[in-house]
Amino acid sequence: MQVVPGDRVVPGDGVCAGAVSTPSASVRSPRPLGVARRALALLTRWAFAHLDLQVIRLWTHADNAPSRAAAERAGFSRNRSGDRLRAVKGEVWPTVAYELRRRTADSTAPPPER
């Protein structure tokens, strides 16, 4: 699952103070265990707690149903305005976008795990 391309914190566009990237990990049979959702929830809690972020945006391949489901279970909402074709690994991918907003000024956690 990509949050943004590149493994670094980058300046935001005024709405998002920065961005973080995390590629999908190859783990034997992670889906039934909820590993992707838990990892994404952990990353977002850490990012909100330690970075000056108001919004975390991510995108995934439009046909990647497991990544889309993990994003939704981790509390991300669809952001259709971010859907676009993206160049990835020398190919053009149709992608769908999601975002998670900081819940309150003093809250650093995404919604509780389900």
Secondary structure layout:
Layout: E1 10-11, E2 18-19, H1 35-50, E3 55-61, H2 65-73, E4 77-78, E5 84-88, E6 91-101
Antiparallel strand pairs: 1-2, 3-6, 4-6, 5-6
Helix pairs in contact: 1-2
Note down, in words, how this protein is organized.
- The chain has 114 residues and is of the alpha+beta class.
- 22% of the residues lie in helices and 25% in strands.
- It has helices spanning 35-50, 65-73, and strands at residues 10-11, 18-19, 55-61, 77-78, 84-88, 91-101.
- Strands 3, 4, 5 and 6 form a four-stranded antiparallel beta sheet that branches. A two-stranded antiparallel ribbon has the order 1-2.
- A hairpin with a 6-residue loop joins strand 1 and strand 2 (18-19).
- It is globular, with a radius of gyration of 14 Å.
- Residues 1-22 and 25-30 have low confidence and may be disordered.
Task: Name the descriptors.
single chain; 114 residues; alpha+beta; four-stranded antiparallel sheet; 2 helices; 25% strand; disordered N terminus
Distance between the termini: 20 Å
Quaternary structure: single chain
Main sheet overview: 4 strands, antiparallel
Looking at CATH, which topology would you report? Aminopeptidase
Total strands: the figure is: 6
Helix % is: 10-25%
Helix count?
Answer: 2
- Quickly give the structural class: alpha+beta
Succession of helices and strands: EEHEHEEE
CATH architecture label: 3-Layer(aba) Sandwich
Silhouette: globular
CA radius of gyration is: 14 Å
